Amino acid sequence: MRVLVTAASKHQSTTEIAEAIAKILTREGVTAASRRPEEVTSLDGYDAVILGSGVYAGRWIGAATEFAKRHREALLARPVWLFSSGPIGAPEPKPVEESPDALALVTDLHARGHRTFAGRLDRGRLGLAERAITRMVGAESGDFRSWPLIEAWAREIAGELKAAAPVR
Question: Whole-model pTM?
């Protein structure tokens, strides 16, 4: 069983989640590779895909939605899971609404699941316009990602994949 974990990320927070998921899957006995959506030209050799994206103003990053469109037929032939990253703040990250892009892809790709994980806001990585917007909306700086939740989800997927794998 070989899994592709790919995620579009503007400031590397979502990439770090994808890399962690790939490492956890591998540790759980499922071969996994983490690659950026733009680098993937074919899904040949992958038995399943986990696709993620950072969420900005409620929308997935274009590279993730373009990946889904470009590989739609191949994705429909494999188990697919989706994740979003973006809500920030404590104790309850905001916004709490699901991305309409993610919800549409769950339906379109017959995804086995979708999770939203809190993100990270590091003002030092933002451009001038992004800093102005985060100040205007009162966005809180910090790393709000829950690594235990991310690990639990990756382990859940590993369990599903191993249970479905043919016996050799």
Answer: 0.91
